[in-house]
Design brief:
Helix content: 40-55%
Distance between the termini: 112 Å
Number of helices: 21
Structural class: alpha/beta
Largest sheet: 11 strands, mixed
Length: 604
């Protein structure tokens, strides 16, 4: 027993004299992560060695030590070349894929000689078209990078096509007119990281940027101009996405009010900007813009108390959108804002249908009211746009079809094209009708009415609905083209469980109710619809499947980063069609403009 105690004391002295490493500062999680990384690297090296040697010796830590036979070495070298070639091809395809996702997107504009020749003609254009692209809430200018690239590409193609010497004599006059027209596409940057301080502040900043861009670009195209009596013709077109559409409506009204002088002559009404530019308003377009606000237009119905809380969380912009003030109502009914909007040659509103837009549902994007009977007439035009994956599949089928015989079975017939553009309608302009003037006496100097506590009670909600009706019809009377997009084919979908399914209209006794829920049936049976029927036809899907509501960014092929570009790549066919229509409409501007300011309904 005594010897045991002596041995224990001796061991304690030895342990005290030995210096162990200090491991108190080592975190267990860090140790696990570091060990996992080291093991992963070792495992990767083993896989690489095994791929070259075609054996599993690397996993056992044993490599053949005997000398390789010359034939074996030759085989290994051949295998290594094939592996390098495979890696090179894979890297090249990956690089091309990533470059396609990275803004700014590359444009293929043809040879340098063609560009120089066209640029020489356009140095002194007769008219310069300005197109301003406006991003949405918490957005950046590069969000619409793909849209801008397509606009520039199509504008170049339009001018190049018009310069073709093979055009017929009938088109010579038109060709010369197009060649004298220049187009400037500008993505606004003034509201980047500044979209929380309200529509007024954002619109005021946009007015300043628009004026600066016009001055800068016109000085580039007319650097030697010195005559005070000479006016240069310019047009302004606006494409606003989401909140950008409201910025555009506010900014164009203030731009005309602050910096323009109205001029009417034999050639029609226009504005003089800065004493040297003659301004015409060309095309105004919005994509998924909450024209009626988001109050009572949320994806899920929420009480007014929750709306007020969300509005305060979003600061001044939230107060505007959830209508804690009367700014949106004033913008939709006051002549100060309606008259400049009415002077645009064309007005277009794009909206996501069937519940695919979470922030901006269909009713507010297309300013549809459940109480409005304002007529909407179907546009008879080809709006079929095939999704990008289906386009590639059809091209592949056509190539394969050329190699096959003409005899095909029924199973080889190409599938029916899915339409992304499901319907286009236009509202007739109310000619010779005075614009609505706000009747509330509380209107302040800024043109808004502060909300009071009565907005949350029953009478306030009734007044809210009446205001939606008034705003909807006031905007419809300007004459709009409304395009509804079904992006469900590009979104993840799921089937609603039977326990949660509602009774569908076709199960009811009244067969006429089916008509109000199927837009495709309505297009075949009717030529026009009231606003309330159209709202129910495109508002919610009629099948038992629901799609993720991610269409808000996809409608403009949102392209802030590679990841967002990849996620919203399915919307590129929509952007291609929108860009094509806008560029053609912008270049279709005719000088002198029509004195009676015909709206879009006169064109159909």
């Amino acid at each position: 027993m005594l010897s045991g105690f002596i041995l224990e004391d001796h061991l304690q002295e030895v342990i005290q004299n030995v210096s162990f490493p200090n491991i108190e500062g080592i975190n267990y999680c860090e140790f696990c992560v570091l060990s996992t990384m080291i093991l992963g690297v070792i495992w990767f090296l083993c896989i690489s060695i095994s791929a070259v040697t075609s054996s599993a010796d690397a996993f056992r830590g044993v490599l053949p030590l005997k000398k390789f036979h010359p034939d074996t070495l030759k085989d290994l070298m051949t295998r290594g070349d094939s592996i390098r070639t495979s890696f090179r091809d894979s890297f090249s395809s990956t690089t091309d894929f990533l470059n396609d996702l990275e803004p700014p997107f590359a444009l293929h504009n043809g040879t340098d000689g063609e560009e120089e020749a066209l640029d020489t003609i356009m140095r002194e254009p007769d008219v310069t078209h300005f197109l301003f692209l406006l991003h949405g809430h918490r957005g950046q200018s590069k969000d619409l990078g793909y849209m801008k690239a397509m606009m520039q590409k199509l504008a170049f193609v339009e001018k190049k096509r018009s310069n073709d010497a093979s055009l017929t004599t009938v088109n010579e006059t038109r060709t010369q007119q197009i060649l004298r027209q220049e187009m400037v596409v500008h993505s606004a940057i003034c509201n980047e990281h500044k979209t929380k301080d309200g529509i007024r502040n954002g619109g005021d900043r946009l007015v300043t940027e628009m004026l600066e861009v016009i001055e800068t670009e016109m000085n580039k195209r007319h650097p030697e101009s010195s005559s005070d009596d000479e006016f240069y013709d310019i047009t302004i077109s606006i494409l606003g996405n989401s909140l950008g559409g409201l910025y555009g409506r506010y900014a164009i009204a203030k731009f005309v009010e602050r910096h323009c002088v109205r001029e009417s002559d034999e050639e029609g009404a226009c504005w003089i900007v800065g004493g040297k530019y003659r301004l015409f308003l060309n095309v105004f377009c919005t994509t998924a813009t909450p024209h009626l606000g988001v109050s009572k237009h949320t994806y899920f119905s929420i009480p007014r108390t929750a709306e007020i809380a969300a509005a305060h969380a979003l600061r001044d912009t939230g107060k505007d959108l959830f209508r804690l003030n009367d700014l949106l109502h004033t913008m939709a009914t006051c002549p100060t804002y309606l008259e400049p909007l009415a002077n645009f040659r064309k007005r277009i509103a794009y909206a996501n249908a069937f519940g695919t837009d979470f922030p901006v549902p269909t009713a507010t994007a297309a300013f549809l009211s459940e109480n409005s009977t304002y007529p909407h007439h179907f546009v008879d035009e080809s709006m079929d746009v095939v999704p990008e994956q289906q386009q590639q599949q059809q091209q592949k089928q056509r190539r394969i079809g050329k190699r096959k015989s003409t005899k095909q079975s029924k199973n080889d017939v190409e599938p029916v094209q899915k339409k992304l553009f499901i319907a286009a309608l236009h509202t007739p302009r109310a000619h010779n009708e005075t614009l609505v003037v706000p009747s509330k006496s509380e209107t302040n100097v800024e043109g808004t009415v502060e909300s009071n506590s009565s907005i949350s009670n029953t009478a306030g909600e009734t007044e809210h609905k009446d205001e939606f009706h008034e705003m909807s019809e006031s905007l419809d009377k300007l004459g709009w083209k409304k395009v509804f997009i079904d992006i469900r084919s590009e979104l993840p979908t799921m089937e609603i469980p039977k326990t949660f399914r509602k009774r569908r209209l076709w199960r009811e006794k009244d067969p006429k109710s089916v008509e109000t829920k199927c837009i495709h049936t309505l297009k075949k049976r009717r030529t026009s619809l009231p606003s309330k029927d159209l709202a129910s036809a495109v508002g919610a899907p009629t099948d038992n499947r629901v799609s993720w509501p991610l269409g808000h960014n996809m409608i403009v092929a949102f392209s802030r980063s590679r990841m967002s570009t990849f996620m919203n790549k399915g919307g590129r066919p929509v952007v291609d069609a929108v860009a094509k229509e806008l560029v053609e409409d912008i270049f279709a501007w005719d000088f002198p403009p029509l004195s009676d300011k015909q709206s879009i309904d006169d064109e159909y």
